[in-house]
Design goal:
single chain, mainly alpha, SpoVAB, membrane, Stage V sporulation protein AB
Amino acid sequence: MTTKNPTNGAIGVFPLDKLILAMIGLAGGVAVGSGFVAFLTVLDIVPRLTVLTRTRRFVRWYEMAFVAGALLFTWMDFRGWAVTLPPVSTVWVGLLSGVFVGLLAAALTEVINVLPILAKRIRMESRVFWLLMAMMLGKVVGSLFQWLVFING
């Protein structure tokens, strides 16, 4: 690509600093994307979804949906596009986002065995259910506080 050189008005090549920035941005995107895919792979999110929904034959569709969603929303972010939906649809978007985050949290907890270790450390082995309920309630109250006080307040 050519640009006008501000010093002498001649047409020159694309500045090296912009090329370096583009390469750094691309490398960062590849690193983050690879990390996300590795995270989903280690946690077995796609197989877990297919087992829970009894749709093992659609495993490729799940994988393509993850990739297509990541590509689409990255492209939309670069283009500055926004999706305007009716207010009622935010319930569904929030529900689906919550399911996805819940799956990630449950899978991560299962992989690293957080709850049994935490229960043993604080001597609450017989109360793991209540520990889980307290964590869930804390997450819900914290999210509501964030939305109702910090964002809308």
